[in-house]
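Internal ticket #5521
Category: modeling
Description: The requester needs a full-assembly model to guide mutagenesis choices. All entity lines are attached below as received. Residue total reported by intake: 424.
Assigned to: D.W.
Attached entities:
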Amino acid sequence: MSGHDHGGDGVSRRNVLECMTWAGTGVLWTVTGGVPRSLGIIDSAQAATAAAPGMTFLQISDSHVGFDKPANPNALGTLEEAVGKINAMPAKPSFMIHTGDITHLSKAAEFDNAERIISQSKLDVHYVPGEHDFLDEEVKLYRERYGRGTKGHGWYSFDAGGVHFVGLVNVVDLKAGGLGNLGAEQLAWLEDDLRGKSKSTPIVLFAHIPLWTVYPEWGWGTEDGGRALEYVKGFGSVTVLNGHIHQVMQKVEGNVTFHTARSTAFPQPAPGAAPSPGPMKVEDAKLRSMLGVASINFKQNEQRLAIIDTPLQG
Amino acid sequence: MKTLNRRDFGVDLGLALAAAILLPATARADDLEVHIDNFVFQPAELKIKVGTTVTWTNRDDIPHTVVSAGKFRSKTLDTDDKFSFTFTNAGDYKYFCSLHPHMTGMIKVE
């Protein structure tokens, strides 16, 4: 076995002010008061990605096209900047995933604008919905555009570069007082989808709301996310990619790496750092350092996928 | 006694409540408001009489909904949008935001 083994090494989420670098991925992360936080960047990542063989794909999230409040009066503009960054990458990624909240209010024009900009990347894009994409009265606009070939409310799986990808929907049928929700039907499908897969197949689960409990006080977690994680327990390499919280967070638990991406629209506060999880207004000069995209590299025979978060600026 | 009109005073919820308390019981059926600020329904619990209309106003930069399972369901409320519901039956009405389910509230109708 190569790489670092985090299984049973006693890295507790409750440890305070513990910092460690994680060789091989360049991820620097810290645990403060029980809340894991990524310190963000990472090494000379771009160059490393360009040189790395294997498959690279991108994650963008939380575009909130249509958002026009003070935290970012031009969310479409910053999405366009993100796509510009993607187009400027030295090596063309294989494809992109979008972890939801494409639009702010599920208006047809918002979906159209998002599509117009994102399609300029000329990449295949695999979407999962955020709660902001299911707001139209008939809840049909997202599914008309992105639901083809999916199950239930829009979940599906596909294989690329030897990795099995599973897009999950955890923004439907939310219960009062609860968190994100996958539901029995989707969990049964997931269990079935993974059945028979070789345990050496790297698995990527992606969904809008974090599948792990980040901060329940703000609803940042998924009620039955633990069930989904049980189904992937036996696999050697599992990566969980989420959005929703508009900031980078990462933690590693055994063979599972959890990661949330920045938004391309506006930042949100760190858990508990503000009265609410609403949009965080920062100085105009600082905004682009808090928005961005993530690039994920998978090399055959490596336990973990290397994740590199790149801000729009700074 | 004439019905008190909120607009006469240009008041917000706090004053409207104060007015309701000062008035005799007959006027307590005055319509009431719940504000959504910082992902919180305020006040989180209201006690009202049958026939009262409650109006929710979203004052956040993020859309919310007001949903009481099987009882009432607002459309998505963008910033400054309102939703009103008139309570014609006594009972406890638990409600929540279907987008942010950690947001909950209660209307007690007697």
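Resolution: model delivered.
Comment from assignee: Residues 54 and 300 of chain A are 7 Å apart (CA to CA).
Ticket closed.
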